[in-house]
Amino acid sequence: MEKEIQKKKLALVVIERLKKEYPVAECTLDYDNAWKLLVSVRLAAQCTDARVNVIVEKLYEKFPDVEALAYAEQEEIEAIIRPCGLGKTKARDISACMKIIHEQYHGKIPDTFEALLKLPGVGRKSANLIMGDVFHKPAIVTDTHCIRLVNRIGLVEDIKEPKKVEMALWKLIPPEEGSDFCHRLVYHGREVCTARTTPYCDRCCVQDLCAKKGV
């Protein structure tokens, strides 16, 4: 119990430090409609957000709404999204997902976590992103940056499975802070606490709190 109390205190300090460092917390996937975020987050698996943002422009030029995408040939979708990787699987999921949204939800995406999880290609990470960014409800998005950083900082200890990290963070992060906190972890993970190079601890706003400096 004492350990959890200390972690909650640490979490609050980390949240405030990241707020000062990154005042604006937004998803780095471009979208102007909820269903487009759903498409983009599926394409973002094993692909950079920057590349997804370029590819979806081409996709929406040809298929500008849910109905058009729902009834597009999977091969046509795959041909456009192939640069994002896993083209066949992603095209299949997007096609099936858009059909359900068009036929069962009249073009609107469902607004409950459970309903989102039933959509093809939507896992916990994607569902949480939608809940937080679209519906402004409590959410914890455990992407690779989140998992790496909360382990390094010491909010969790040697937990790499996304769902387990999510469950651990729900106990530490105030619900209203979860979504923005995870966005800020993405910014920090890309710019400072990097994965493919040695972390830039000398310019880290939480370096004095970190359990694993330079790891």
| Element order: H for helix, E for strand | HHHHHHHHHHH
Report how far apart the termini are: 27 Å
CA radius of gyration: 18 Å
CATH superfamily of the largest domain: Hypothetical protein, domain 2
Q: Indicate the CATH class of the largest domain.
A: Mainly Alpha
Low-confidence stretches: none
Mean pLDDT: 96
Oligomerization status of the protein chains = single chain
Percentage of residues assigned to helices: 55-70%
How many helix segments? 11
Written overview of the protein:
- The protein has 215 residues and is mainly α.
- It has 2 domains: 2-26 and 140-203, Orthogonal Bundle (Endonuclease Iii, domain 2); 34-133, Endonuclease III, domain 1.
- It has helices at residues 2-21, 34-43, 49-62, 66-70, 74-81, 87-105, 113-117, 124-133, 144-153, 162-170, 178-191.
- α2 crosses α3 and α9 (144-153) packs across α11.
- It starts with a helix and ends in a 24-residue tail after the last helix.
